[in-house]
Amino acid sequence: xxxxxxxxxxxxxxxxxxxxxxxxxxxxxxxxxxxxxxxxxxxxxxxxxxxxxxxxxxxxxxxxxxxxxxxxxxxxxxxxxxxxxxxxxxxxxxxxxxxxxxxxxxxxxxxxxxxxxxxxxxxxxxxxxxxxxxxxxxxxxxxxxxxxxxxxxxxxxxxxxxxxxxxxxxxxxxxxxxxxxxxxxxxxxxxxxxxxxxxxxxxxxxxxxxxxxxxxxxxxxxxxxxxxxxxxxxxxxxxxxxxxxxxxxxxxxxx
Length: 255
Prior knowledge:
By secondary structure, this protein is an alpha/beta fold. The protein has a single domain, classed as Metallo-dependent phosphatases (Purple Acid Phosphatase, chain A, domain 2). 32% of the residues lie in helices and 22% in strands. The chain has seven helices and twelve strands. The strands form two sheets. The protein has a six-stranded mixed beta sheet. A six-stranded mixed beta sheet has the order 5-4-3-2-11-12.
């Protein structure tokens, strides 16, 4: 796996995920965009690791909050910020082609990222992922994920009228809220992927269990470190970034 970005010297990067932005929650959008404007000072790279948007039914979806996010990111990109945008479990339809529709990543001035990717930080490789694909104990979700990520399903869904897609998304969101269960990633599986990729650091979102921890160590005893990014909610005073710069790795609390 070839690193998609290399950060060296004075470079600094921000990592965020799980903002779940949309017209249903303008307060969290205001919180995130204000925090982003402050946090990007002297930052060269921004990585958004999935679920920037909530219940996204296609890039033709009219949503003023999504538009505000795209406008803000595009402006920062014009000023020289490199932006990587990864799909999550809520916005997996980002950039799936719709005729005569500009892709969301293009609107943002961002590069669409695979899930997962490597970056190079000062000569050390770091693995980035959203995280939902590694929650292997939730077999029902994994079956659903495989279904909705299939190109045939996506093409059939996007062929539906926008109003119908929005109604389906509302129903799915209500079911998800009622279920309210997000399992942790399978740590042994994640550790095996890290060893196979030759990395000792992992950054992901999805689980809404932010913090730094260690995974089962490498065969030579080397520690495998992971950072889980926080989710965002203005109402519940949650949110933040992980920043890496010449001083190391640290959290920026945006509450």
